[in-house]
Amino acid sequence: MATIRDVAKAAGVSAMTVSNVINDHPNVRRATREKVLEAMTRLDYRVNVAARNLSKGRTGTIGLAVPQVNSPYYSRLAATIITAAERHNLRVSIEQTGASRDSELAALSMSRNRLYDGLILSAVGLGPTDAERLKVDHPVVILGERFFGGPVDHVAMPNVEAAEAATSHLIERGCRRIAILSGRVDIVDSSTLRLAGYRQALEKAGLPADPALVQTVDRTDMAEGAERARKMVESGLGFDGLFCVNDSLAMGALRGLASAGVRVPDQVKVIGFDNVKESEFLVPALSTIDPDHDAMAERAVHLLIRRIEETEPSTDHEEFFSSFSVVIRESTGG
Amino acid sequence: MATIRDVAKAAGVSAMTVSNVINDHPNVRRATREKVLEAMTRLDYRVNVAARNLSKGRTGTIGLAVPQVNSPYYSRLAATIITAAERHNLRVSIEQTGASRDSELAALSMSRNRLYDGLILSAVGLGPTDAERLKVDHPVVILGERFFGGPVDHVAMPNVEAAEAATSHLIERGCRRIAILSGRVDIVDSSTLRLAGYRQALEKAGLPADPALVQTVDRTDMAEGAERARKMVESGLGFDGLFCVNDSLAMGALRGLASAGVRVPDQVKVIGFDNVKESEFLVPALSTIDPDHDAMAERAVHLLIRRIEETEPSTDHEEFFSSFSVVIRESTGG
DNA sequence: ATGAAAGCGCTAACAA
DNA sequence: TTGTTAGCGCTTTCAT
Question: Minimal CA–CA distance to B296: which of B91, B136, B108, B73?
Answer without folding.
Answer: B73
